[in-house]
């Protein structure tokens, strides 16, 4: 007989007790859970109600930064040189697109040129913060703007709007002075970290721009302004559904920067260069205001605002005439014969009589080398006045070591060479003013040569503006302004005011360390250069403005070493093997007001033929824009003075005076023509 297993409880109460324990445990846990939940709900609803209400509001409303309008840069007459203009643009919000690649493909059909920038667009979109619109293309035409708006419903995450873009109305005329703006990059972010400062959130905004060169860079903080922001209402996906006007904050525009430049003079200065390369500076010799500062060839800074294509940038960077280089303040050149006024002042400072004569037979023999004068047949007897007028190299070869290179260097520094100036533009070159100390330090620093001693033969090259001498156009303009002013060591001023606050004048400076008599001798020689019919620049220095005349000095400087007997090259020689042409001048010569310095890099001919006529045209605009000069030009010419009827010249400042007779014994003169040797350090004038 089989038996089946059975479960037996010894007591009915035992079975009931087990059930009650389970019920009690489950019930207790439920009560505890409900109690904890009630407590937490009470804490959230009562204790932390305000805190979570704020967080909820923040989730509902976002504060989005908006870049401020950048401050304007204007010239001395209020003409806008850098401003802002409305610009249509199309933007993409990464988090609102289903497929970024597909969206860009569709945009490429509407805007074909975006396909060329596809890779950079994807990089910018991926780097942008969430829900921040990223510009895909700026400066849309009205047709492009309308086309994008028509298809916008079919392009999720794509929008078109209007913003303000930086604009340079004169293109390349002010490119090197003003600079340009561009998007912030990693170096800008790192600069904040290096200074230990908190990174400004506006730097991450894709529509924000920072100054890159020139005035835009130097005064970037003042031009930036203060960013504003919109308090917008967003849905659960972060999309904008409305704006809280009361919570929004308007952006504060940047401060305006007023420059001393004159747009008309600046434009004319760039125009006269044509296809040539070089730099030019115009200064008011009374207060140091820079009226024009041009580098040629130039470039259009508008190309850089939205990002210049790499092929265009490479074309600019690789062009041999270097349009991206500021040749007015950074590029340095030998000054050539424009330096002879400096040497003349050093000779006068050394006690040399300006009437002392040196016979120029076409060169000067020193040691085993003959230093040629630019005029092969020689100039004959020359005193200081005629040596400046005729740009006679031999005169300065013969006398320069009686002054010495250190005295010449000291005078050069007093006239403005070897310095940089606080004009609101970084990247200036101080150039080189050779001296015994300079050679010693240069030798120790470079080990280019083992002999740190200065030799008198090296002074001959420096005396005529060659050798190691290197200057820029701004320094030449400062030299000319100081000579013309005759009293003050005028300093250049480029920025007139920032945010309405006036900057110091360039006339608040010490006096020049030269006597009036010595300055008059040099300036009379410059007046003869431009107004004596035998002067090296007479033909190309006539202004044609009534009785207003210029005083100036030509220069032609070697750009390379020439072998013995080698020709300086024809007009169609290879560009980078030509000499440089220079011209400095001030006007009117009887009451100086404006100074100009102009350098043509690798000019076709020389200072008289290439640089002087261009400087004359720039000077004419400066004079014609001056009300006092215009009234002087328009008034009737006075009758000729009695002195002219007798053939005598008036003894006034700036006149091309007759060379004084030799009242003292002349210096030992050369009577025999030198043997053929090394070529001149100075080219034809």
TrEMBL record:
<keyword id="KW-0812">Transmembrane</keyword>
<keyword id="KW-0961">Cell wall biogenesis/degradation</keyword>
<keyword id="KW-0378">Hydrolase</keyword>
<keyword id="KW-0645">Protease</keyword>
<keyword id="KW-0997">Cell inner membrane</keyword>
<dbReference type="Pfam" id="PF00905">
    <property type="entry name" value="Transpeptidase"/>
</dbReference>
<dbReference type="InterPro" id="IPR050515">
    <property type="entry name" value="Beta-lactam/transpept"/>
</dbReference>
<dbReference type="InterPro" id="IPR012338">
    <property type="entry name" value="Beta-lactam/transpept-like"/>
</dbReference>
<dbReference type="InterPro" id="IPR005311">
    <property type="entry name" value="PBP_dimer"/>
</dbReference>
<keyword id="KW-1003">Cell membrane</keyword>
<dbReference type="Pfam" id="PF03717">
    <property type="entry name" value="PBP_dimer"/>
</dbReference>
<dbReference type="InterPro" id="IPR036138">
    <property type="entry name" value="PBP_dimer_sf"/>
</dbReference>
<feature type="domain" description="Penicillin-binding protein transpeptidase">
    <location>
        <begin position="278"/>
        <end position="620"/>
    </location>
</feature>
<keyword id="KW-0472">Membrane</keyword>
<feature type="region of interest" description="Disordered">
    <location>
        <begin position="629"/>
        <end position="685"/>
    </location>
</feature>
<keyword id="KW-0121">Carboxypeptidase</keyword>
<feature type="domain" description="Penicillin-binding protein dimerisation">
    <location>
        <begin position="66"/>
        <end position="243"/>
    </location>
</feature>
<dbReference type="InterPro" id="IPR017790">
    <property type="entry name" value="Penicillin-binding_protein_2"/>
</dbReference>
<dbReference type="InterPro" id="IPR001460">
    <property type="entry name" value="PCN-bd_Tpept"/>
</dbReference>
<keyword id="KW-0133">Cell shape</keyword>
<dbReference type="GO" id="GO:0009002">
    <property type="term" value="F:serine-type D-Ala-D-Ala carboxypeptidase activity"/>
</dbReference>
<keyword id="KW-1133">Transmembrane helix</keyword>
<keyword id="KW-0573">Peptidoglycan synthesis</keyword>
<protein>
    <submittedName>
        <fullName>Penicillin-binding protein 2</fullName>
        <ecNumber>3.4.16.4</ecNumber>
    </submittedName>
</protein>
<feature type="compositionally biased region" description="Low complexity">
    <location>
        <begin position="655"/>
        <end position="685"/>
    </location>
</feature>
């Amino acid at each position: 007989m089989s038996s089946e297993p059975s479960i037996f409880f010894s007591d009915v109460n035992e079975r009931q007790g087990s059930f009650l324990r389970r019920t009690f445990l489950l019930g207790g846990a439920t009560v505890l859970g409900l109690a904890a939940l009630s407590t937490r709900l009470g804490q959230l609803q009562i204790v932390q109600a305000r805190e979570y209400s704020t967080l909820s509001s923040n989730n509902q409303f976002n504060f989005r930064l908006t870049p401020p309008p950048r401050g304007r840069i204007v010239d001395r007459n209020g003409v806008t040189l850098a401003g802002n203009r409305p610009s249509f643009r199309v933007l993409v919000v990464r988090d609102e697109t289903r497929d970024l690649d597909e969206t860009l493909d569709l945009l490429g059909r509407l805007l074909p040129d975006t396909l060329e920038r596809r890779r950079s667009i994807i990089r910018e979109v991926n780097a942008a913060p969430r829900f921040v619109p990223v510009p895909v293309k700026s400066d849309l035409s009205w047709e492009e703007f309308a086309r994008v708006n028509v298809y916008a419903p079919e392009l999720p995450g794509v929008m078109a709007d209007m913003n303000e873009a930086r604009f340079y109305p004169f293109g390349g005329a002010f490119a090197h002075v003003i600079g340009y703006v561009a998007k912030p990059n990693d170096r800008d972010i790192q600069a904040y970290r290096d200074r230990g400062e908190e990174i400004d959130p506006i730097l991450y905004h894709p529509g924000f721009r920072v100054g890159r060169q020139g005035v835009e860079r130097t005064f970037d903080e003042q031009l930036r302004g203060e960013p504003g922001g919109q308090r917008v209402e967003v849905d659960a996906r972060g999309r904008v559904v409305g704006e809280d006007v009361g919570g929004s904050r308007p952006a504060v525009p940047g401060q305006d920067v007023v420059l001393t430049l004159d747009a008309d003079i600046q434009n004319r200065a760039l125009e006269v260069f044509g296809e040539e390369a070089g730099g030019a500076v115009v200064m008011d010799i009374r207060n140091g205001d820079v009226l024009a500062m041009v580098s040629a060839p130039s470039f259009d800074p508008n190309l850089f605002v939205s990002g210049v294509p790499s092929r265009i940038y490479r074309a600019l960077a690789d062009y041999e005439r270097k349009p991206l280089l500021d040749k007015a303040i950074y590029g340095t050149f030998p000054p050539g014969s424009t330096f002879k006024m400096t040497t003349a002042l050093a000779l006068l400072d050394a006690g040399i009589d300006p009437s002392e004569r040196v016979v120029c037979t076409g060169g000067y023999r020193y040691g085993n080398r003959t230093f040629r004068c630019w005029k092969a047949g020689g100039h004959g007897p020359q005193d200081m006045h005629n040596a400046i007028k005729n740009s006679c190299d031999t005169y300065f070869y013969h006398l320069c070591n009686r002054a010495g290179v250190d005295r010449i260097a000291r005078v050069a520094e007093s006239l403005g060479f070897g310095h940089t100036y606080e004009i609101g533009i970084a990247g200036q070159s101080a150039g080189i003013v050779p001296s015994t100390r300079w050679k010693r330090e240069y030798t120790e620093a470079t080990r280019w040569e083992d002999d740190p001693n200065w030799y008198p033969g090296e002074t001959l090259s420096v005396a005529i503006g060659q050798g190691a001498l290197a200057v820029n156009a701004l320094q030449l303009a400062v030299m000319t302004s100081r000579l013309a002013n005759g009293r003050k060591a005028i300093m250049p001023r480029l920025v007139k005011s920032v945010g309405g606050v006036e900057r110091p004048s360039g006339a608040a400076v010490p006096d020049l360390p030269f006597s009036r008599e010595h300055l008059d001798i040099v300036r009379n020689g410059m007046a003869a250069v431009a107004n004596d019919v035998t002067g090296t620049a007479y033909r190309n220095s006539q202004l044609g403005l009534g009785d207003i005349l210029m005083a100036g000095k030509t220069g032609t400087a070697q750009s390379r070493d020439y072998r013995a007997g080698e020709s300086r090259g024809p007009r169609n020689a290879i560009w980078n093997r030509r000499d440089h042409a220079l011209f400095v001048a001030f006007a009117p010569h009887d009451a100086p007001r404006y100074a100009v310095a102009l350098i043509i890099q690798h000019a076709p001919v020389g200072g008289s033929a290439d640089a002087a006529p261009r400087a004359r045209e720039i000077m004419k605009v400066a004079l014609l824009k001056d009300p006092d000069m215009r009234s002087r030009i328009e008034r009737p010419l006075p009758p000729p003075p009695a002195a002219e009827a007798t053939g005598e010249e008036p003894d006034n400042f700036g006149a091309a005076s007759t060379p004084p007779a030799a009242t003292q014994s002349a210096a030992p003169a050369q009577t025999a023509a030198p043997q053929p040797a090394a070529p001149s350090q100075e080219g034809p004038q």
